[in-house]
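can u do me a favor
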């Protein structure tokens, strides 16, 4: 039986028994883990408070090599984002970020880049960065961390140089096509020039600078819809539902 420890962010938790929880966490060095936290629902337990979604902790846990479910041994809460949970829109966005990583990553999957992206994104929401900007930035940076960063030089078919006009984004290839290019696309989304420019800037950033770009809500919605569609197409996962999700053209 291995005994491990490290920094972690709580992605979610659900009841396991009258007194215990199954907690899903993203650790900095061991990827996503799922642990039984025994006795934390008891009135005498002080640990359960620190296992709320998005809280940061230093944890110690044990795990058998034959099982994906480990057992929490110790949990010391190091940070709770109190301001974030007082803002309804920020809270909803944070919840989607947590659920997205839980869906995309399997147990044992995930690297320090995923952990740091989540940490810096939560810090940005805590500081009041716009939710549409932050969710779009998070999704694009997640694609980049997964090696799926889209190519945004167009046109991929006729080699037209980037301009100030709208373009078509090919969900299958992650490439842009100019609006007038006759090349057919089976699965596409329309992107305005402003959205393309913003996406290019985001993909140049490191996670610790995720707060440094802001864009208007309409562009944010367009970027989120594009990144979600691309991630779902290539990751084969259904992401958490979001009100006002941009439909994918077929």
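np, heres the sequence
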């Amino acid at each position: 039986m291995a005994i491990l420890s490290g920094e972690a962010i709580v992605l979610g938790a659900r009841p396991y028994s009258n007194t215990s929880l199954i907690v899903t966490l993203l650790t900095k060095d061991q990827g996503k883990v799922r642990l039984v936290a025994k006795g934390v629902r008891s009135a005498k337990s002080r640990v359960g408070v620190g296992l709320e979604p998005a809280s940061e902790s230093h944890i110690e846990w044990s795990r058998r090599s034959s099982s994906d479910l480990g057992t929490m041994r110790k949990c010391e809460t190091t940070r709770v984002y109190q301001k974030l949970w007082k803002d309804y829109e920020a809270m909803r966005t944070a919840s989607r970020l947590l659920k997205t990583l839980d869906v995309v990553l399997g147990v044992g999957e995930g690297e320090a880049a995923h952990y740091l992206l989540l940490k810096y994104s939560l810090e940005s929401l805590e500081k009041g960065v716009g939710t549409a900007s932050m969710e779009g930035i998070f999704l694009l940076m997640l694609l980049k961390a997964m090696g799926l960063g889209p190519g945004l030089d167009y046109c991929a078919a006729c080699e037209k140089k980037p301009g100030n006009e709208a373009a078509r984004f090919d969900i299958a290839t992650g490439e842009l096509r100019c609006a007038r290019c006759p090349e057919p696309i089976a699965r596409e989304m329309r992107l305005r020039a402003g959205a393309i420019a913003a996406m290019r800037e985001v993909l140049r950033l490191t996670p610790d600078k995720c707060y440094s770009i802001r864009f208007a809500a309409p562009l944010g919605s367009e970027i989120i819809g594009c990144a979600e569609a691309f991630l779902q197409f290539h990751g084969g996962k259904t992401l958490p539902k979001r009100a006002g999700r941009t439909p994918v053209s077929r």
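The beta strands are 2-15, 21-27, 31-37, 56-63, 69-79, 167-170, 175-178, 188-191. hope that helps!!
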